[in-house]
């Protein structure tokens, strides 16, 4: 089963964008994510529509943040990505008239709904700046002792 990693990947990109001067082109972001620039533009367009990033076309153009990371929550980005499903597991719908399937789905549906509500609430309480501060702490600790752990 494939996981949707767009949320974590976009958070990664936004923190990098915050840490670097100037704009980031779709090509640079695509290399960072090991994907195609078209995929980056499509994904970033949702963030632009919600006012989290800005783009400039042409030579010297690219993507920049429109707001400080303190003003963007994980929930904001989740919604800007189209509110993708948060769980890879789901209900069976092979035999909707089967009473066993109905009972199983009723039990699971309540648990899934409760877990999703907790997760979405947590997303709303965490800003990207909170994540960036955690990065800063980890980076500081990693420079105090040698070891792997660098990215892009």
TrEMBL record:
GO-annotated cellular components: cytosol
GO molecular function: DNA-binding transcription factor activity
InterPro entries: Tscrpt_reg_Rrf2 (IPR000944), WH-like_DNA-bd_sf (IPR036388), WH_DNA-bd_sf (IPR036390)
PROSITE patterns the record matches: HTH_RRF2_2
Protein name listed in UniProt: Transcriptional regulator
Organism: Phyllobacterium brassicacearum
